[in-house]
Write a structure and sequence with these properties.
Layout (H helix, E strand, L loop, with lengths): L2 H26 L9 H4 L41 E2 L6 E4 L16 E2 L14 E6 L4 E5 L5 E4 L4 E5 L6 E5 L3 E6 L5 E6 L9 E5 L12 E8 L4 E8 L4 E12 L1 E6 L5 E6 L16 E5 L5 E5 L5 E5 L5 E7 L4 E6 L5 E6 L9 E5 L8 E7 L12 E6 L6 E6 L19 E2 L5 E6 L10 E6 L9
Antiparallel strand pairs: 1-2, 2-29, 3-4, 4-5, 5-6, 7-8, 8-9, 9-10, 11-12, 12-13, 13-14, 15-16, 16-17, 17-18, 19-20, 20-21, 21-22, 23-24, 24-25, 25-26, 27-28, 28-29
Length: 460
């Protein structure tokens, strides 16, 4: 496993254990809220402030060539004041203020969007979920950018794709929901009775999975006391029961699981397969893709870099990823298993570089988002330190939007938080990303938003 993957896993595990502890303490306490907890359990009130004025008066000339451009050096922007990226044309605004937006008792040094693969916007795009670096979470108004309140402690939270006030989350062995409008926390399903006689400590996606677009189907892994996966399950929210199960024997180390947007495919990312081999039902490794019944599984990739699910221009479900073996950005058709390379990745001047993928713009099929970072502030490649869209077909267009101004030093542990982790909303008109704005090693990060016109992809 690469060093960056190990660091990511350790930091994520720390987040999970911290949140588990916070959640357990709150659940075991008296139901009467303390003064400290009052903000986190009351309903989230919508903002009455005026919307922020974004710079959408004209269509900018987004950069579509792959030439190297010198980064623009700017002082850190003030919150809630929109500005244009003078090189790439995107309209940006700093959403958070790490000095004033944190609740009393939150020791976090920064605020960010959680991850590239996780949808930060609620079902109607009116609210944003924001993660503090010490596992606190807040809700912001997507138009006014005002912080509306803090959420209760929760693991693996996911916005409902249908109800704009609903968040689902994991409570160790339970699936829970939280209603922002009422403040109600509700048990959706208790998985403990589904594993009688087994010492299961968690049933979850392991940070990176999401439910199907209709909220009905969920992919989960069950882990034992050694945090090894002993089973995969498909949970049907509509029927409130597990509809498919696959035992993993012997228990294995699985990076994450998720369900495809339609719910037809269950994806599991294992450790890499040896060169010249692929995973199978009997010996899973690399990327395994199962059908919803979990009875039929195919090993489709030997080794998996950063990635996300997406839809191609015809609405087919694809895997959008970094191909570690060929150094290409590529797509994998989940039904046929066909791989198509989009463009090669230039690692000539790579110094702790990395890229993340977001395919969450399902209402604009055929497009995906990439954020690329490295620790070299002097030498540049065409992808360095900016955020761009990719047309998900061979020979497709690349459209660059903005620089992220985040300096990520691989030798600085706190710079995990500074990785941009850009994610896109459902209709591909809002992009969130994280930046330390050159403050490497501090953990002092902020969340920014790029605002796009609805027809950005039609520009010549």
């Amino acid at each position: 496993m690469k060093k960056t993957h190990i660091l990511t896993a350790l930091l994520a595990l720390a987040l999970f254990l911290t949140a588990c502890s916070l959640l357990a303490n709150r659940q075991n306490d008296s139901p009467a809220p303390s003064a400290e907890d009052e903000e986190t359990i009351r309903p989230i009130q919508r903002s009455s402030a005026a919307p922020v004025q974004f710079c959408l008066d004209s269509q900018p000339p987004f950069v579509t060539d792959l030439g190297v451009r010198q980064d623009e050096r700017l002082p850190e922007p003030a919150p809630h004041v929109a500005f244009r990226d003078s090189i790439y044309g995107g309209c940006l605004v700093r959403v958070t203020n790490r000095k004033t937006d944190r609740s009393p008792g939150d020791p976090s040094r920064g605020l960010k969007n959680e991850y590239s693969r996780l949808q930060a916007f609620n079902a109607d795009g009116s609210l944003i979920m924001v993660l503090a670096t010490e596992a606190h979470r807040y809700v912001y108004d997507a138009s006014t950018l005002e912080r509306l309140g803090e959420l209760p402690a929760m693991n693996d939270p996911r916005w409902s794709n249908r109800d704009p006030n609903l968040i689902y989350y994991i409570g160790e062995l339970t699936l829970m929901s939280y209603n922002l409008a009422t403040g109600e926390q509700r048990l959706v399903h208790d998985f403990a009775p589904d594993f009688p006689g087994q010492n299961i400590v968690a049933v979850w996606t392991r940070w990176e999975g999401s439910q199907s677009l209709d909220d009905r189907y969920w992919a989960f892994m069950a882990e034992d006391q050694d945090w090894l996966t002993v089973a995969f399950v498909v949970y049907d929210l509509q029927q409130d029961r597990i509809i498919a199960r696959r035992q993993i024997s012997p228990p294995g180390d699985v990076d994450s699981v998720t369900i495809s947007p339609s719910g037809a495919y269950f994806l599991a990312q294992f450790e890499y397969c040896e060169h010249g081999s692929m995973g199978s039902l009997e010996q899973p490794c690399g990327l395994m893709v199962y059908d919803q019944s979990l009875q039929n599984g195919r090993g489709l990739l030997r080794n998996v870099g950063h990635s996300d699910l997406a839809l191609d221009e015809n609405g087919r479900e694809i895997f959008f990823y970094q191909d570690i073996d060929t150094d290409h950005v590529a797509i994998l058709d989940l039904q046929s298993g066909t791989i198509s390379n989009l463009f090669p990745i230039d690692f000539t001047f790579c110094n702790g570089c990395g890229m993340h993928f977001s395919g969450l713009g399902y209402q604009l099929p055929g497009w995906g988002l990439i954020s690329y970072f490295d620790g070299d502030a002097v030498t540049h490649m065409w992808m360095d330190d900016h955020i761009f869209a990719v047309e998900l077909k061979p020979g497709g267009r690349v459209v660059r939007f903005a620089q992220h101004h985040s300096l990520v030093d691989p030798n600085q542990e706190h710079d995990y938080w500074a990785e941009p982790h850009a994610s896109v909303n459902r209709d591909f008109t809002r992009i969130l990303f994280t930046s330390n704005w050159g403050r490497s090693g501090t953990g002092e990060v902020e969340m920014y938003m790029i605002v796009l016109p609805v027809n950005w992809f039609q520009a010549p």
